[in-house]
Amino acid sequence: MCDILDAVIKCKAAVAWAPRKPLVIEEIEVAPPQANEVRIKIVATSVCRSDLYCLLENLADICYPVVFGHEAAGIVESVGPGVTEFQPGDKVIPIFLSQCRECRFCKSPKTNHCENTSALLIREGMPGPPSRLSCKGKKLMLFGGTSTFSEYTVVNQIAVAKIDPAAPLDKVCLLGCGICTGYGAAVNVANVEPDSTCAVFGLGAVGLAAVMGCKAAGAKRIFAVDINPDKFEKAKVFGATDFVNPNDHSKPISQVLAEMTGGGVDYSLECVGNVEIMRSALESCVVGWGVSVIVGWTELKDLATRPVQLMVGRTWKGCLFGGFKSKDGVTQMVKAYLDKKVMVDEFITHNMTLDQINDAIELMKGGKCIRTVLSVSPK
């Protein structure tokens, strides 16, 4: 239970005190929302690979302590001055990618970026968004401007999407990142066409969502590429038609796909976050018109290919959050889920509580789950 005292809420959160260390369930203080902010009771959150990447791999100059988590859903508890779009009781999904609707990016149909998006992680000497979370006298850094591994959090209103009151929060929380990222990469960024051939590299939640997007766009053949064959049955549920394990072949995977398709696929989507696989995905595309989209997140290595790979007519693109204008896109995807036009429940392989978050992290590290949903606060 959470105690409210002078508008400061005391509640539980999973705090990362240092990199590569287990998260610690602590009692934290959540100050009231200030101008243009929304305080949200998080009902459900899930563990995304980006949380693990930042906790375990991307360690340079990151400020700690921090509360991770960015794929969640909850209920508005209170709002600060200037907030007119939300009121207490609204069901919402916080989003790491803002949509202020006022900057040049938000006003352009060419991108889903927003000038006012918070950095995913705050580095030393870098100004970060104001945090209303603290523990043991120390300010807790916000992750992606959301920090959802907490019973309560405070988010700027430009990074919150209001959703249909009928939406089950313990399901649609997944639309805060992974599903929109993969699905949108196929339908919004690659612009997959009917009767085309596609290859999706990596069959985590983002990759499976990309498979689902390719199917929704009308692709006739969808190659699911992963070194874990146990994932192929799951990929079939989302629409994959062919399955390729690179470990089963002595040739480069690009050559294997070229032989299977008469020259290469029309579209490829890299959903791992590995620069070598990004290059393989590009080279798996047919010359002349092939489009390859980088979806997996990494900042650790440079990306390279030979110029001729692009000079022959391939296009190499990247995307963030599947190209969706975030607030609009999340609301749209929740409606699509309620209308049974996209799958969400099928991504959930485990259900746990916030207290079990380190167990959930171990499941993901070991590749033993697609998505684990954590119950945070009672509905």
Topology diagram in text:
Layout: E1 3-5, E2 8-15, E3 24-30, E4 37-46, H1 49-57, E5 66-67, E6 71-79, E7 91-94, H2 104-107, E8 133-135, E9 138-139, E10 141-142, E11 152-156, E12 160-162, H3 169-172, H4 178-190, E13 197-201, H5 205-216, E14 221-225, H6 232-238, E15 242-244, H7 253-261, E16 267-270, H8 275-283, E17 291-294, H9 308-311, E18 315-318, H10 326-338, E19 348-353, H11 357-365, E20 371-375
Parallel strand pairs: 5-10, 13-14, 13-16, 14-15, 16-17, 17-18, 19-20
Antiparallel strand pairs: 1-2, 2-3, 3-8, 4-6, 4-11, 4-20, 6-7, 7-12, 8-9
Helix pairs in contact: 4-5
3D architecture notes:
Pfam families: ADH_N, ADH_zinc_N. Keywords: Metal-binding, NAD, Oxidoreductase, Zinc. Belongs to the zinc-containing alcohol dehydrogenase family. Its cofactor is Zn(2+). This protein has helices at 49-57, 104-107, 169-172, 178-190, 205-216, 232-238, 253-261, 275-283, 308-311, 326-338, 357-365; strands at residues 3-5, 8-15, 24-30, 37-46, 66-67, 71-79, 91-94, 133-135, 138-139, 141-142, 152-156, 160-162, 197-201, 221-225, 242-244, 267-270, 291-294, 315-318, 348-353, 371-375. The chain is α/β, with parallel strands linked by helices and 379 residues long. It folds into two domains: 9-174 and 344-375, Alpha-Beta Complex (Quinone Oxidoreductase, Chain A, domain 1); 189-321, Rossmann fold, CATH 3.40.50.720. The strands form four sheets. Strands 4, 6, 7, 11, 12, 19 and 20 form a seven-stranded mixed β-sheet that branches. Helix 4 (178-190) packs across helix 5 (205-216). The longest helix is centred in the middle third of the chain and has 13 residues, at 178-190. The radius of gyration is 21 Å and the shape is globular. 51% of the residues are buried. The model has no long low-confidence stretch (mean pLDDT 93).
